[in-house]
Amino acid sequence: MRERIERHVLRADGARLRLGLRHPRLSRASKLIVATSLALWSSLSVAELPEITLNIKNHKITAEVASTDTTRSTGLMHRRMLPENRGMLFVFSESAIHAMWMMNTYIPLSVAFIDANGTIINIADMQPQTQTAHPAARPAKYALEMNQAWFAKRSIKPGDKIEGLEKAGPAR
CATH classification of 51-168 is 3.40.50.2300, yes or no? Predict the structure, then answer.
């Protein structure tokens, strides 16, 4: 009879990872060490990003801050879910016509491009696993990704202000 060790790990990105080991020659202690090591490695594979609270028309959200080239290029890739009222704020080093795409992103998202004063420029809905570019309508300093239709359900539109962006700090 084969032994089976299973571990369920909830990663920082919300994904549930199931680790299973079956090997007739490994001792129970060896299997436990391997399973624990794999669980630790998987939890470290998703970088913990700083989080800030933003307010849009009396709606509070928690946003992970992507302010480096690496975190901005990774964004919400490989995530399987995004809790309600949570998103990712992209902080750019300069205001420009930035664009977002959905390669390796499994969640349908909406992106709001925001100017340096915190005013929403435009909002675009994005489909998972596509390489379609969704650009800002004019130079943007920030982009905020939320679950698709999050903005529409709350009647948030271009021209609305986002409060709390100063807590994100500068791009690095």
Answer: no
- 106 by Cβ neighbours in 10 Å (0-12 / 13-18 / 19+) ranks as middle
pLDDT of residue 67 exceeding 80: yes
Q: What is the pTM of this model?
A: 0.74
Write the burial class of residue 67 (CB in 10 Å: 0-12 exposed, 13-18 middle, 19+ buried).
buried
Q: Taking the CB of residue 51, how many other CB atoms lie within 10 A of it?
A: 14
Task: For the chain, report the end-to-end CA distance as a whole number of angstroms.
Answer: 54
Domain ranges of the chain: 5-44, 51-168
Check whether 149 has a pLDDT greater than 70: yes
| Signed CA dihedral, 22, 24, 28, 34: sign only | negative
Strand partners, 99: 135
Q: How far is CA 52 from the centre of its chain?
A: 13
